[in-house]
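TEACHING EXERCISE
Course module: macromolecular assemblies
Task: Read the component lines below, then compare them to the predicted structure of the full complex.
Student: A.B.
Group: 4
Components provided:
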Amino acid sequence: MRILLVEDDHLLARTMLDMLRQDQNTVDWLDDGQQALTALNNEHFDLVILDLTLPRLDGLDVLQGARQAGNHTPVIILTARAELNEKLTGLDAGADDYLTKPFAMAELKARIRAVTRRGHSASGDAEIRVGQLRLNTSSGQLMVGDEHAVLPRSEFQILHYLMRHPGQVATRRRLEEQLYGWDSGAESNALEVHIHHLRRRVGKATIRTIRGVGYVLDPDAVTGDTPCH
Amino acid sequence: MRILLVEDDHLLARTMLDMLRQDQNTVDWLDDGQQALTALNNEHFDLVILDLTLPRLDGLDVLQGARQAGNHTPVIILTARAELNEKLTGLDAGADDYLTKPFAMAELKARIRAVTRRGHSASGDAEIRVGQLRLNTSSGQLMVGDEHAVLPRSEFQILHYLMRHPGQVATRRRLEEQLYGWDSGAESNALEVHIHHLRRRVGKATIRTIRGVGYVLDPDAVTGDTPCH
DNA sequence: GGCAGGCGTTAAGGCTGGCTTAAGACTCGT
DNA sequence: ACGAGTCTTAAGCCAGCCTTAACGCCTGCC
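Instructor-supplied answer key:
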């Protein structure tokens, strides 16, 4: 998943970055409310983790601003216990969940899973299913029928996105964002190569090309082949 | 197992440390409530042994703080008999068990086994089973099929953790925590070497590598080798 | 029908990270 | 003090991953 972390405590932020990236996410980090709002308006994220006390523009204003602009990205708010009363305002302003500092990293993981609505309750590993595809989102293990594979990072990111939006078109741009966040700069046909490799695993018909736009995952497509070489 | 001991009586603490380490555990020790809460929020422990009278932050506050942060680690509370009435509050606050000082080390061991819920019912030796693996957690004896061996400490720690979380990813970080706690500083490929030795015992396919992340125990993996030809 | 642009396919190169092995350091019991 | 068993370190190897680039195909447009 692509996550935006907005947190001005650099020490805490770094801990969270490490944890989130370890969990196979592409994470971008800002420590400033103004920039955060701009980023939210111009790019796509699957989740925002938003501290309330920020320089330049308060977290709540970021949230409200984004929502007013029609942005529905799931948001988890971080807040000090002293600001408890603000939380109500926070939920009113359109946050999906909140966490009071200090919090346990495990708890953050759980909330993320809850908010993104995958991995039902149980603290076990989260898994997405689409058709006969089963993708373990914490280990990147993929089951196609009864064949098993561990996806490399890039292929995982792509397939994960496609499976989160089955039947919807994923633009090339969107997929590249998922892969690189802001670090990118990759100007090549890398994406097509990854898609190629994915199709080899998943069955050719499962990922359909929309010429000039991007790709779609076809939930109904059946594989037919399981290469094994 | 990785255990956090929070106890400000240094003499008692040292005794307990020795005993717990004797039993193959990795134990970290703090004598201060504030630090304990911080540690609990940022790291993973399998068990906390918590004295109630602590400098800076009372034991009960540590417990409550941790629980509010969403931390579900099993906790055993230590308390002087004079503070008996507090115990009820202790259980209310989310402790799993308590022990009144002075106590026998054997008693503590028993409580630990009970709280960590391994070694069902009878106080006989605790044993974990996953697939065809059977690990005796008190002796470190491993049965693979009908072959048996006694694991050295490091390999035991790793396999024990993997078997407690079969099918889930164990990050390198997590495994190193299990091995060293805070004493570490070990910057090397030691973990990989241990994994290598373990695979030799347990079958290569049983421990799967998740590149850039860690390892998973595959419960279904058989000792032989994968078919596919 | 020819052309151009987008996409598929394949192979090669660089690189990272894990695997393997062997050698020394250490511990502990005898 | 010695030896067996254990842990760490280091070095070289290997495999897998990502990107790049070349080439061919397909599609749609003129």
